[in-house]
UniProtKB/TrEMBL annotation:
GO term, biological process aspect, one: regulation of cell population proliferation
Organism: Panstrongylus megistus
GO molecular function: ATP binding; ATP hydrolysis activity; DNA helicase activity; transcription coregulator activity
Name assigned to this protein: RuvB-like helicase
UniProt-annotated location(s): Nucleus
UniProt lineage: Eukaryota, Metazoa, Ecdysozoa, Arthropoda, Hexapoda
């Protein structure tokens, strides 16, 4: 199994409308602070979510599932994302929407399985022989191309590494030059090079350069202690899906024919059940040996009523397996049909046997005061100025439709304000955009009033 060059395949999240949320906002006893970490109110749900986070952290949650249930716009998705933030970046969090399984290209269960494995982490600990230090010199040495023709090739690289204890100059293979370039290593960076594989890992910028320029994106690390050449415990966090992908990649050589083969082959590599079973076997072996540790993460399935009976059955089965993530479902449905099983009416449109193993967290509608506080936070995050009357008007609209709808009106309202020559969104702007756009409820009311005018 390849774990050396595993690239992370974490999904990018669509969280733009939740970017004000930084965590669950609990105090040290797990009690919600009314307004904290970007969250307002919804205190019972936040406290419950906090308990689930603790259970996940202490590994007492694997194979279990949580359902966030409540009307639209009551913060189900927001709280799930806050849980992800509380768990930290080392615990995998994979968000998906129920309808994602209905793709015309991939089997429903395949989509689920892939996301399942994105939500299971593996922390691999290995002791490796490495060269580590701050780069003091980086000189590629070029020679004439031995095959004739144009250009020069790199014959070797001279690199200087410094630690608190000493310095060393290394002469490295040209292949390492490529990894150095790929990791964008420069003088002043702290890196290590694995002696066996030649893999290069850039750890960050040496903190002696910290005042040089203040890029927030840059991570500063201290000058390594000990010798340049040493044994080091290397920890790598990957997900099972990362491993699947890395091992499914065609493993051809460097010659032109196999390169061509890789180009012609469709980009999507096939991950088969057989491959997954192989990976599981190796993973289990690593775990038994104590070189790896399983980190069950969170699979978040929003709008879970979109799943059908077949996918529910599959999910339920997968939850029974010894390698399973924690699943958080969210839905705004009450009693409804389970998709694909027309005659079964069930709470939240989920099969009863699955419901049976869930912890259910309820979210409740906000009052106007809470809505106006949330809208204020959103406006701040989006860099919009809004006056109090406008906030009151927006929360009034939110109370009659949903909070999400009134959050969405913020941006158009800021545009009308600008058109009307104002820098601050006022009540008139809110009223203007709310007459221009319809919320779902009024839209469906109009549809039913003028049934005969629309096509069926
Ligand atoms: N308690 C809260 N505190 C702060 N913002 C919230 C809160 N609840 C919801 N929001 C914000 O309101 C909007 C709608 O909430 P959302 O989580 O999408 O609702 P749901 O998933 O229940 O339909 C989002 O922009 C969300 O970030
Ligand atoms: Mg939602």
């Amino acid at each position: 199994m390849k774990i050396e060059e595993v690239k992370s395949t974490v999904k990018t999240q669509r969280i733009s409308s939740h970017s004000h949320i930084k965590g669950l906002g609990l105090d040290e006893n797990g009690v919600p602070i009314p307004v904290a970490a970007g969250l307002v109110g919804q205190e019972e749900a936040r406290e419950a979510a906090g308990i689930v986070v603790e259970m996940i952290k202490s590994k007492r949650m694997a194979g279990r599932a949580v359902l966030m249930a409540g009307p639209p716009g009551t913060g189900k998705t927001a709280i799930a994302l806050a849980m992800a933030q509380e768990l930290g970046s080392k615990v995998p969090f994979c968000p998906m929407v129920g309808s994602e399984v209905f793709s015309s290209e991939i089997k429903k269960t395949e989509v689920l399985m892939e996301n399942f494995r994105r939500a299971i982490g593996l922390r691999v600990k290995e002791t490796k022989e490495v060269y580590e230090g701050e780069v003091t010199e980086l000189t590629p040495v070029e020679t004439e191309n031995p095959m004739g023709g144009y250009g020069k090739t790199v014959s070797h690289v001279i690199i200087g590494l410094k630690t608190a204890k000493g310095t060393k100059q290394l002469k490295l293979d040209p292949s390492i030059h490529e990894s150095l370039t790929k990791e964008k290593v420069e003088v002043g960076d702290v890196i290590y090079i694995e002696a066996n594989s030649g893999a290069v890992k850039r750890q960050g910028r040496s903190d002696t350069y910290a005042t040089e320029y203040d890029l927030e994106a840059e991570e500063y690390v201290p000058l390594p202690k000990g010798d340049v050449h040493k044994k080091k415990e290397v920890i790598q966090d990957v997900t099972l899906h990362d491993l699947d992908v890395a091992n499914a990649r065609p493993q051809g050589g460097q010659d032109i024919l196999s390169m061509m083969g890789q180009l012609v082959k469709s980009k999507k590599t096939e991950i088969t059940d057989k491959l997954r079973m192989e990976i599981n076997k190796v993973v289990n072996k690593y775990i038994d040996q104590g070189t790896a540790e399983l980190v069950p993460g969170v699979l978040f399935i929003d709008e879970v009523h979109m799943l059908d009976i077949e996918t529910f059955t599959y999910l339920h089965q997968a939850l029974e397996s010894s390698i399973a993530p924690i699943v958080i479902f969210a839905t705004n449905r009450g009693r409804c049909e389970v998709r694909g099983a027309e005659d079964i009416i069930s709470p939240h449109g989920m099969p009863l046997d699955l419901l049976d193993r869930l912890l259910i967290i309820r979210t409740l509608p906000y009052d106007k005061n809470e809505m106006s506080q949330i809208l204020k936070l959103r406006a701040q995050t989006e860099g919009l100025n809004i006056d109090n009357d406008a906030l009151v008007q927006l929360s009034h609209i939110g109370a009659n439709s949903t909070l999400r709808y009134s959050v969405q009106l913020l941006t158009p309202a800021s545009l009308t304000a600008k058109v009307n020559g104002r820098a601050i969104i006022s009540k008139e702007d809110v009223i203007e955009v709310s007459t221009l756009f319809l919320d779902a409820k009024s839209s469906s009311k109009i549809l039913s009033q003028h049934k005969d005018k629309y096509m069926k």
